[in-house]
Write a structure and sequence with these properties.
Layout (H helix, E strand, L loop, with lengths): L4 H11 L15 H5 L8 E2 L1 H9 L5 E4 L3 H6 L6 E2 L5 H4 L8 E5 L4 H12 L4 E5 L2 H8 L8
Parallel strand pairs: 1-5, 2-3, 2-4, 4-5
């Protein structure tokens, strides 16, 4: 038994668990998995691989999911513009059997779009790793960067 209230408080304080004790359960294996519910590499295509597809005349839809003003500023020739925010209501403009390559500025919005389209039943969707910025850096150095 404790003679003084202060002794009881010290005992409680000493036995208190903190986050340093790692007593909290993990709700996701990693931060990345908590943020992205899929593996980005499953959807990735490099800019030079996209260039090879274009040069080979391969039949696919190039989808730009940046905002309209970004598309108007600069875009890859032949791209269709459907901003990511409009994609949930405009996805029917695309065919689920077409091969679709999605890009944005740096590659994050296009990953979201690729995942969304895949969840909606689209069979072949890829996202340009690094987006149009990496495309301009590695493939088309004359393209305006912003």
């Amino acid at each position: 038994m404790f003679k003084r209230f202060r002794d009881l408080l010290y005992k409680i304080w000493d036995s208190a668990r903190t986050s340093r004790d790692n007593f909290l359960p993990r709700v996701a294996p990693s931060v990345e998995e908590a943020i992205l519910p899929f593996d980005p590499e499953d959807y990735a295509i490099l800019p030079n691989e996209l260039k090879q597809m274009v040069d080979a005349g391969r039949d696919f839809v190039l989808l730009d999911v940046r905002e309209v003003w970004e598309y108007q500023l600069v875009h890859i020739e032949g791209a269709v513009s459907i901003p990511l925010g409009e994609l949930p209501r405009r996805f029917r403009e695309l065919s689920p059997v077409d091969e679709i390559v999605v890009y944005c500025h740096h590659g994050m919005r296009s990953l979201d779009a690729a995942y969304l389209l895949q969840q909606l039943g689209f069979k072949s969707v890829l996202s340009v790793a690094g987006g149009i910025d990496r495309w301009a850096s590695e493939v088309d150095q004359d393209m305006q960067r912003y």
